[in-house]
Structures are given as C-alpha cells and as structure tokens.
C-alpha cells in the first residue's frame, strides 16, 4: 500500500499543490516553518480523518480562506483508492465530508484502519516524559486502526464515562459530604452506568494487554539494533483491571467517586511504565535515548501492523536527525531499508543530508524542496 498522489487546496500554508510520490521513500527538505510538517499532516489527515497535531478542523484551513480540500490517490492491493476530505466553514456553519472512491462515508469511523499510518513527530518524546494520557493515546491510535471492535468499544466507553462523570457531579452535596450516603434513585442510576461501562472497558483492557505483550516482543530487538545493544529497555502495562474485575473496581470505589465527582478507576487511567537500564526512562533518559525509545516504539507498531494485516503502514517521520547521534541514525536507516517497512516520508532541514540518506538506503526515492508553502 502506498500514496501515489496528493492534491492540497487551502490546507494550512498551502494554497494549491499537487505532488506525486515514490512508493518507497520521500523526503521533504526546507527551513523550519516552510510547511514540511504540514505535508506529513495532510497524509495523516487522509488516513485518520483528522490532524496529527490535534488541531481543530477550522484551524487547518489556510488563513483567510473558509474551506480546505485534500485528495489522495492510494494504491492498495493493486487497486486505486481515491480519498477526498473537505471541510468548510460558511456563515457560521461547519461541514466536514469524507469520500472514498466518490462515495461519502456515513460515519468517519468507517474509514479508520482502511489506510494504516504511523506518525513520529519531535514532540512525541512526551510519550515517555508526559502524562499517562500520552501513552494511552499511543495504544489507542494503533489499535483503532487494527481493530474496528476496539474503536467501537473505546468510543462507547468514553461516551458512558462522560455521562457517568456528569451524573456524579449532579449528586447532592449532602450525599457527597456523607461520603457513603447515596439515595436509592441515585444508586439505581449509577448501577445502570456501571453495567453499561463494564463491557467496553473490559474489552479495551484485554485488547490493550494483548497489544502491549506483542509490542514488547517486537520492540526490544528493534531498540537493540538502533542503540547498538549498549542499553537494556523494557515497558509494562499498568491497569487496575489487572488486579480486579471492572465490576469490583466500580463497586469498591463508588463512595470515593461520589465524593470526588468523577470515576477514579478504570481503563481511562491505564498507563505504560518505561525503563532504561532498570531505571525510569523519564527521569534518567537523555534526549537521544528518549527519542530512540519512542522512534523504536513507533517502528515496533509498524511491525505489528505488518504481522496483523500482511502489509506495513505508511510511515511519517518528522525531523528524524534531531537529537540522534550519527551512529544511531545510521543503524536506524539500515533498519528502515529492510523489506519490513513500506512507504516512508521523512522531513529534514538539509536537502544534502536527505539525499545522502536516501542513497545510503538504496531504495527508489524522491526529494522535495519546500519553501513557504511551495514544493519543487
């Protein structure tokens, strides 16, 4: 699977641009702020129905315009897939349309997983150093593309969680201050929310646990190659559901939930614990080690896609060379040159370095020069 062609209209800093890509390696070179990352984001948008930068759709529209349009022609299993994304904000009304081969999607969730993609950005080191929500998002984005059941359960869980939390905030202050005193009507409604959230929550836990086990198996050999086998790494999945059933957790924490106005335990609190040479990665990892760790996590996810679907995802890497020493970059490029990886897009500020890298990888490639929203 690969992207053959993309057409951007009013997308971020691009007024109008059409590009044709190599099925193997594509490099975008240019100074910072010229629009290299925006091109990666356009590819991601066509695959995931949203910006990788968590921008609202209205913020993706080119300044001064009221709509954007993206069109991509992909080749998948020897068939053409034409994907069109349109967003318009006219007279205070906003409308978003996604089409596959000229047929509009009824629900955007139907598109997720059709064109798998993995994106690494410099800010992704926050996966290692930031809060647990960053690490859950890593798992969720991957599993949502691999498993429609997971995406449906995640959507259902988040909706019920929001409803349960909203209801907990409405329970009388008197009941809350007594901590354990919730009246019969309130208990009945909480029972209903608990019953509804248990099934999707349990499915999410089981699928995350299976995914993390496989990811660990794939990750360690990848990191060993990139680091030159001089460091030992590990990560584990931490969830309250590892110790108790979700029903027991909700019952045990009900009074606490009422008192604190929120659901205090569940898969929305899950985390990944990363270690480097037996110590916490976030405390003791250098910038290069942090980036190596997260890049290798993304490559491990690529390998899981290949194993599960029979083909690798599109891989987007923004600013590959920053904070990595020359030896790690060389080993990483050797890895990327293998048949395990499909179409790759990489950005860099130095066109000569990109050219040298592409030649070293010995795969078909194209290098694009990006300057103020124009590409040559």
Explain this structure to me?
The chain has 376 residues and is an alpha/beta fold. It contains 13 helices and 15 strands. Helix 4 packs across helix 5, helix 7 packs across helix 11 and helix 7 packs across helix 12. The chain is globular and about 70 Å long.
The tally of strands reads 15
Gross geometry: globular
Strand order of the largest sheet: 2-1-4-5-6-7
Helix content: 40-55%
Measured by DSSP, the beta-strand proportion falls in 15-25%
Distance between the termini: 24 Å
Q: What is the number of helical segments per DSSP (H or I, 4+ residues)? A: 13
Our Rg estimate from Cα atoms comes to: 23 Å
Largest sheet: 6 strands, antiparallel
Mean pLDDT: 93
Please state the structural category: alpha/beta
Order of helices and strands: EEEHHEEEEEHHHHHEHHEEHHEHEHEE
Low-pLDDT windows of residues: 175-179
